[in-house]
């Protein structure tokens, strides 16, 4: 899409049309991730043309300028699959209202050493390390040695609900991260529930923010 001027213009026009049709405040691009330096260059060009287009549209329609945000890798220069990649920093700084660095999936079958940490807004399970020093440590950041319940250690909210009920898991609210976690035996699960999400939404409203982001809706499921 970002390779040619015509394709970029078609994409930009369609995003503006959809945003206005549904009353959105802005647009978010989640490109994970440009695969090489050429695509990174195209990414920067796209952002520049996008910014020009939303400003022009706002002037013509006398509406507020649409926001442009993007999810990006947590490092500006990195190597994935033996390919070096570097983000167009100047274009990102000049054309985006907000960039959201992504750092996730610290556990998985792709890791040589399994570690665990809580991802806000995301459900992650782990197997806690069990020895004399750590067997009673269930707090966020406790050592872990492998995947927990669920597919590759990931559960929907309904699966978390069912796991907690079936295993009589201890459920804990963590006020620092404004999130929940539960544990039973060697298993540990971090997640958000209705109460923690509601607190985050109230926080966003109190600050007068124009929106908030969570990942991802497909994992919410339905809890009976």
From TrEMBL:
SMART domains: Glyco_18 (SM00636). Belongs to the glycosyl hydrolase 18 family. Chitinase class V subfamily. It holds the Pfam family Glyco_hydro_18. Keywords: Glycoprotein, Glycosidase, Hydrolase, Signal. One of its GO terms (molecular function) is chitin binding. PROSITE patterns: GH18_1, GH18_2. Residues 1-224 form the GH18 domain. InterPro entries: Chitinase_II/V-like_cat, Chitinase_insertion_sf, GH, Glyco_hydro18_cat, Glyco_hydro_18_chit_AS, Glycosyl_Hydrlase_18. The keyword Signal applies. This is GH18 domain-containing protein. It comes from Stephania japonica. One of its GO terms (biological process) is chitin catabolic process. The lineage of its organism: Eukaryota, Viridiplantae, Streptophyta, Embryophyta, Tracheophyta. GO terms for cellular component: extracellular region.
């Amino acid at each position: 899409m970002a390779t040619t001027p015509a394709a970029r213009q078609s994409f930009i026009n369609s995003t503006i049309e959809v945003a206005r049709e549904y009353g959105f405040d802005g647009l978010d691009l989640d490109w994970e991730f440009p695969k090489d330096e050429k695509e990174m260059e195209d990414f920067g060009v796209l952002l520049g043309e996008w910014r020009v287009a939303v400003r022009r549209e706002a002037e013509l329609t006398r509406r507020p300028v649409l926001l442009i945000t993007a999810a990006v890798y947590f490092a500006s220069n990195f190597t994935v699959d033996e390919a070096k990649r570097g983000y167009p920093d100047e274009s990102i700084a000049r054309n985006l209202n907000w960039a959201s660095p992504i750092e996730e999936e610290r556990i998985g079958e792709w890791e040589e050493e399994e570690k665990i940490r809580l991802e806000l807004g995301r459900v992650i399970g782990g197997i806690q390390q069990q020895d004399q020093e750590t067997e009673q440590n269930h707090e966020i950041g406790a050592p872990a040695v492998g995947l927990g319940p669920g597919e590759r250690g990931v559960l929907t909210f309904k699966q978390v609900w069912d796991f907690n009920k079936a295993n009589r898991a201890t459920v804990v609210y963590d006020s620092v991260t404004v999130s929940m976690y539960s544990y039973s035996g060697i298993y540990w699960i971090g997640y958000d529930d209705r109460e923690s999400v509601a607190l985050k939404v109230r926080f966003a409203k109190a600050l007068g923010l124009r929106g908030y982001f969570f990942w991802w809706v497909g994992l919410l499921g339905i809890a009976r």
